[in-house]
């Protein structure tokens, strides 16, 4: 098994038995509001929802503020691998999620002319967990319904305009729709264009172009006639498979989901033109087809059947020096803290891990030590997240600069055990005491300074 590169960061981690971990609270549900910790979560994406659900399980009280007045079924394919899927399982959502997800059992990787370079096995169940890959809107709805069933206070149409903290008073808060709200902790789960970052950094940091954009589409296979065209009928098989074509500075991924009834396509290509990012900006069909015009004819045949495309400009940011405000009463999680490249296939998973681990750290630290708990959480998370981000960069470079002779396992999408065989809840219970003691001993250091 690969080494867990995050583990040496926080000194010795006690080897606790499962019974000892359970004694601390692992995989247990605490009585409602038992910690006395009040949390405001800004943003009801996957990071915010996961943090809210796990926080309620750990006995905190939560309010979510979301700027959208209603939940829209926007987006296309999103992936949760074993490291985050285990929480959906633990929350009892497997039976709702599994039927709406794709179950690609293998990844078939081609060069642009259609020569098969590698067939990578893609197990969908491993490490006592499942992978959930499906339509973002459909998966989101399951989590949102679950959060509502737990009685979580979710306020839609609440766009936060200001974040503040008062370390002396031991609280932080927001201004929303003219109202001033306060809590023990504010969680900025407000996505890649986060306004919470301003309070953390003291300045506005602008996203930068990643140098790439992605044409994305998700459509109904039958209505598009996928099964009636000999060039695309392979996608209509009753077997979920992920297909990839890897070229110079371009890669195209297509999959059939839900037993061949839905088709998902993402075409990543060079694009420095714009750094605007939207999940609904329309893509130009001719521009899409132009990219694959000299490729394996199956690529154009699939793409030409899509009713529409989203032109998604992929923004990126340098790692933040810290995810916390000066008084550690505001914590950034998910994309607000660390946007991911899609080639990592970890953005949503790390957002969920962040939220779960934070809820655990707060339970272990207690209401009287919220800033210490939050700093300990950051020290446990930062390096792992950075390593996962870097994996996305190296995979993109590997694919986009592949040599004609490259094939076999060298083309695989990395699925390292240190990343996927990881339980952020269990890890936090096991590692918290050591990391908290180290922090108390050595004082707080910006986590970026702790990277090798
Ligand atoms: C509409 C939408 C569609 C997406 N579709 C896909 C997809 O198809 N495939 C994919 O891989 N990824 C998609 N993503 C991104 C993906 O969900 C995230 O990269 C990942 O899940 C991390 O989630 P997050 O919760 O950190 O951020 P996000 O999912 O971006 O959630 C952030 C939330 O914060 C809210 N928010 C922002 N500012 C404020 C404010 N001031 N006050 C209150 N609320 C605020 C936003 O409305 C949003 O709901 C989409 C994101 C969005 C918002």
Oligomeric status? single chain
Class computed from helices, strands and strand pairing: alpha/beta
Going by CATH, what is the homologous superfamily of the largest domain? FAD/NAD(P)-binding domain
Task: Sketch the major β-sheet.
Answer: 7 strands, mixed
Spans where pLDDT lies below 50 across 5 or more residues: 6-12
How many distinct domains? 2
At the first level of CATH, the class of the largest domain is Alpha Beta
Please count the helical segments. Answer: 13
Percent of residues in β-strands: 15-25%
Beginning-to-end CA distance, first to last residue: 23 Å
Count of DSSP E strands?
20
Order of adjacent strands in the largest pleated sheet: 6-5-16-17-18-15-19
What is the level-2 CATH architecture name of the largest domain? 3-Layer(bba) Sandwich
The hetero compounds bound to this protein are: flavin-adenine dinucleotide
Fold-level CATH name of the largest domain: FAD/NAD(P)-binding domain
> Helical residue percent?
25-40%
Give the mean pLDDT: 91
Which radius of gyration do the C-alpha atoms yield?
22 Å
Which descriptor suits the 3D outline? globular
């Amino acid at each position: 098994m690969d080494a867990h590169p995050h583990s040496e960061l926080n000194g010795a981690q006690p080897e606790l038995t499962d019974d000892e971990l359970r004694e601390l609270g692992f995989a247990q549900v605490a009585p409602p509001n038992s910690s006395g910790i009040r949390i405001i979560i800004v943003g009801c994406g996957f990071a915010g929802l996961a943090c809210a659900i796990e926080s309620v399980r750990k006995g905190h009280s939560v309010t979510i503020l979301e700027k959208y007045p209603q939940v829209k079924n926007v987006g296309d394919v999103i992936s949760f691998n074993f490291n985050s899927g285990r929480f959906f399982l633990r929350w009892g959502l497997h039976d709702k999620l599994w039927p709406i997800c794709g179950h690609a059992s293998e990844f078939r990787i081609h060069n642009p002319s259609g020569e098969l370079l590698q067939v990578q096995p893609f197990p969908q169940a491993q490490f006592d967990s499942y992978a959930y890959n499906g339509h973002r809107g459909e998966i989101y709805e399951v989590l949102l319904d679950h959060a509502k069933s737990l009685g979580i206070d979710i306020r839609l149409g609440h766009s936060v305009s200001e974040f503040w903290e008062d370390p002396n008073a031991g609280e932080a808060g927001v201004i929303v729709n003219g109202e001033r709200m306060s809590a023990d902790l504010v969680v900025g789960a407000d996505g890649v264009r986060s306004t919470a970052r301003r309070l953390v950094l003291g300045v506005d940091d602008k996203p930068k172009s990643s140098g790439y954009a992605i044409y994305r589409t998700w459509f109904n296979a039958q209505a598009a006639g996928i099964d009636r065209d000999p060039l695309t009928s392979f996608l209509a098989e009753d077997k979920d498979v992920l297909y990839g074509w890897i070229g110079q500075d371009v890669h195209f991924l297509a999959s059939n989901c839900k037993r061949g009834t839905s088709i998902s396509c993402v075409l990543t290509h060079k694009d420095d033109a714009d750094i605007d990012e939207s999940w609904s900006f329309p893509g130009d069909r001719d521009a899409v087809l132009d990219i694959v015009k000299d490729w394996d004819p199956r690529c154009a045949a699939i793409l030409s059947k899509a009713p529409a495309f989203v032109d998604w400009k992929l923004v990126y940011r340098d790692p933040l020096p810290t995810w916390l405000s000066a008084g550690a009463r505001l914590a950034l999680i998910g994309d607000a803290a660390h946007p991911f490249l899609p080639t990592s296939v970890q953005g949503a998973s790390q957002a969920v891990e962040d939220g779960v681990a934070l809820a655990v750290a707060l339970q272990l630290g207690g209401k009287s030590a919220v800033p210490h708990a939050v700093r300990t959480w950051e020290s446990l998370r930062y390096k792992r997240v950075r390593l996962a981000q870097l994996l996305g960069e190296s995979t993109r470079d590997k694919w986009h600069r592949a040599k004609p002779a490259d094939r076999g396992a060298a083309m695989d999408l990395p699925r390292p055990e240190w990343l996927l065989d990881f339980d952020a809840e269990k890890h936090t219970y096991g590692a918290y005491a050591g990391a908290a003691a180290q922090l108390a001993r050595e004082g707080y250091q910006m986590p970026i300074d702790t990277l090798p």
